[in-house]
Each structure stands twice: as C-alpha cells, then as structure tokens.
Specification:
The protein has about 375 residues and is an all-alpha fold. Helices cover about 70% and strands about 0% of the residues. Keywords: Membrane, Transmembrane, Transmembrane helix, Transport.
Length: about 375
C-alpha cells in the first residue's frame, strides 16, 4: 500500500466513531492498574499499619514487594501514556479527549467497582481480602482487553492509517515504523518529494512551554491533595472507613464528567493566558482543604473534592487538545511525549509533597 494511495480523502473519516471508542477503552486500560493500586488503600492500611516500627501483619518483605510492583506499574503507565498521547497528538482532537476521558473513567469505575466489592464481602470472614482479590482480577481482565484492541483493531482503522501516513509523509520515523510493521509502504511515489523541515524537540518544547508547565502545575496540585490527604487528614466522621472511598469516588466521577465539557465548543478554553490563570488559581485549594478538614463537615469536603476533580479533568483536556495546534505530524508526536513527561513529573512532585499533610497530625 503506497503512502499516496488514492481515495485517502474519502477514507479519511472512516472508522472515526470506532477510533473514539477504542481510544476511550485504551485510556481506561492504561490507568486501571494504577487506579486499582490507589483504590485499595483501605486494604493496605489494614495489612501494613503505618507506625514507627513500619510493621504489620503483611510483613516488611511483602511491603517491599508491593512497592516494587507499584513502581513497575508507574514505569509501564509512563511508557503507555507517552506513546499513546504522542500517537494521538497528530490525529483528531477528539481522540485525545476520548483517551483522557478513558483515563478518568478508570478512576471513576474502579472506585465504583471497589465500593461494590467491599460491600459484597463486608460481612464475610476475611471479606476485605476477598473483595480486593476480586476487584484486582476484574481490573486485570480490562488490561488484556486493551492489549487486544491496540494490537488487532486500532492500527487497522482507516482513519488511523490516514493520519499515520500523513505524519510519516511529514518525516515521523516512529510512525513510519508503525506503518511498516502493518505492511504499509511509506516511501512516497514521487521520488522528488522532499520531507518538510521540522522543529527539533527542544524547539518544540520552548514553543509550547506554557502548555507543558500547565500540565505540571495541574497535577502537582491535584496529587498533593489526592488521595493521600483524604486518608490522613479527614478526621473521624459518620461514614467511618467508607468516608475516604466516597471522597475518592466523588473526585473520580467529576473528573470524568468534566473531560467531556470541552466537547461543547463555547465552553472550551483555548486562551493560553486564560489557561495559566485558571491553573494557578487552583492553588487556592490548598488552604481551602486545610481549613475545611479542620473546621468543616462532610458536605463541604465532598463539595471541595468534587471541584478539584472538575477542574482537573476540564483543564487537562483543554491543554491537551489545544497544545498540538500549529504543529506538523512529527512535531505533534514529539510534543505529546513531552507533555506526558511534564504531566507525570507533576504527579511525582505532587505525590512527594503529599507527605507534608501528615506533619503535625501525630504520624511523626
């Protein structure tokens, strides 16, 4: 199949709806393992009580083993997200939106599934462990489903082939490799065809540096609160051990809903300055959560965590869909990888800062 094959324009939109659905499922699957590890925090707290001796019924060896597995999930998630966002960045904006909606759905659905499995085994002997094992088994199934979809469905959709061929024509070597693996020739029919010049990765980054910083700041704020603060600083309430799970579920639900808001054109924020102002204003959540945990009740905390999820999802999709505009295929591919690097850097920094919440609450 030649890269300049006829009828490309007529085939351009074929498979668009399928691609959007597959992108959603791939987004869901790429983060379901990580969200599963986060959502069973109540199980970890029972298995590994955090105290000065760092001891518990699970044992220090098991604890270290789980930490190694968690690290492995983090590395795998970084590779998958970076690769997928780089791939989708030069395609239709709806594909990235759907992928990131799937990421949020993995949080919302795993939270719902965790509540169901916890309730199902709540009264049975060793029920917490049984519910956790069932929950992890279901999550594993979705991982294998995503492997199948990406390997045998996504790359064969006409619209995906079209955008990949366009990016390959513009000089994207990684995309050309994907096409070659699928048996598609990427050499142009016109021997005098010259691949257009592209900006270097460094030039692309500096051209779009504000978007990269946007993502870093979004996630350093979000992960400095969620989920650690919800387990350590919400105090004693009527819902007992269910309270953190309810808060996490509310965050995930609103994070998911908000990722569809930019699909309404007049609600989508595209101003670079406006995005930065909105993102910086989110740091007001830090004093808001602190004083709500100290003086407020469950209702105020649920409202705050819902707003945190709402702004997180909405601003993420706005940045991710606007940033690739004006880039060639290879530039958008590189930009997608760089944006995920900053996003995950924000997550790492946020998780590190999350420990600051436990200072002064009796844990040290």
């Amino acid at each position: 199949m030649d890269i300049t094959a006829p009828n490309e324009d007529s085939k351009k939109l074929e498979g668009r709806s399928k691609a959007i659905v597959v992108c959603w499922i791939l987004g869901f699957g790429s983060l379901v393992s990580w969200n599963s590890m986060l959502t069973i925090g109540d199980y970890y707290y029972k298995l590994f009580p955090i105290d000065l001796a760092t001891s518990g019924k699970g044992g220090i060896g098991s604890y270290i083993g789980i930490c190694v597995f968690v690290a492995g999930f983090g590395v795998a998630d970084a590779h998958v997200q970076g690769g997928m966002v780089g791939d989708l960045a030069f395609m239709k904006p709806e594909f990235i939106q759907s992928f990131f909606a799937g990421l949020a759905a993995s949080g919302a659905l795993t939270s719902g599934l965790r509540l169901i499995t916890k309730a199902a085994f709540d009264k049975s002997p060793n029920g917490l462990r049984k519910g956790t094992m069932l929950f992890l088994a279901i999550s594993t199934f979705f991982e294998f489903l995503c492997i199948f979809l990406y390997s045998f469905v996504f790359g064969k959709l006409p619209i995906v082939k079209y955008y990949r061929m366009t990016a390959a024509r513009e000089g994207s070597k990684t995309v050309a490799s994907d096409l070659a693996a699928a048996g598609i020739q990427t050499e142009p029919a016109d021997k005098d065809f010259k691949i257009p010049d592209r900006l270097s990765n460094k030039q692309v980054l500096f051209k779009k540096i504000d978007y990269a910083l946007d993502l870093f700041l979004i996630y350093v704020l979000t992960l400095s609160i969620f989920p650690g603060f919800l387990y350590e600083n919400t105090g004693k309430h009527h819902l007992g051990s269910w309270y953190p799970l309810v808060l996490i579920a509310m965050y995930n639900i609103w994070d998911l809903i908000s990722r569809y808001i930019p699909l309404v054109e007049f609600l989508k924020m595209e101003s670079r300055k406006g995005l930065m102002i909105a993102i910086l204003s989110r740091f007001l959540f830090i004093p808001a959560f602190y004083f709500t945990a100290k003086y407020g009740d469950e209702g105020w905390m649920i409202m705050l965590i819902s707003l945190l999820g709402l702004t997180n999802g909405y601003l993420t999709v706005c940045v991710m869909t606007v940033a690739p505009k004006g880039c060639t295929g290879p530039e958008a591919n590189a930009l997608g990888n760089l944006l995920v690097l900053f996003l995950l850097g924000g997550i790492f920094a946020g998780v590190a800062l999350d420990w600051l919440w436990i200072i002064g609450n009796g844990s040290f």
